[in-house]
Design goal:
single chain; 115 residues; alpha/beta; Transcription Regulator spoIIAA; 5 strands
Length: 115
């Protein structure tokens, strides 16, 4: 199952809902385009809602790091919301849990956002 996503800007944050398998490749181009577009509109916070993300490989991890780098380069932040158990395990194994902040709700991300 390939990855699908929906995205919207609300409360000054880009909220992206990812579903399926994040395995890099050309499927992520529209995702990265929407990130670049939001940053171009001065949106500096991104919430990746990943409770429906079933699988993540090294290329998928690369995509997450690319998104994080784009936002942090502009002084922004990326939050992972509700990672599934398998994704949580991968974040711990790869030590990415030390790089990404995890939140339960969009409100949590808003409260941690520096304005």
């Amino acid at each position: 199952m390939s990855m699908t996503f929906t995205g919207e800007v609300k409360s000054g944050m880009l909220v992206l809902h990812l579903e399926g398998d994040l395995v890099g490749a050309e499927k992520t181009v529209p995702l990265l385009d929407s990130v670049a577009q939001a940053i171009g509109q001065q949106v500096l916070t991104c919430v990746l809602e990943i409770s429906q993300l079933r699988y993540l490989n090294s290329a998928g991890v690369g995509v997450l790091i690319t998104i994080l780098t784009k936002f942090r380069n502009k002084g922004g932040e990326v939050f992972l919301m509700n990672p599934s158990e398998s994704v949580k395990k991968l974040l711990v194994t790869t030590k990415l849990n030390a790089i990404f902040q995890t939140v339960q709700t969009e409100a949590d991300a808003l409260s941690k956002t520096v304005r």
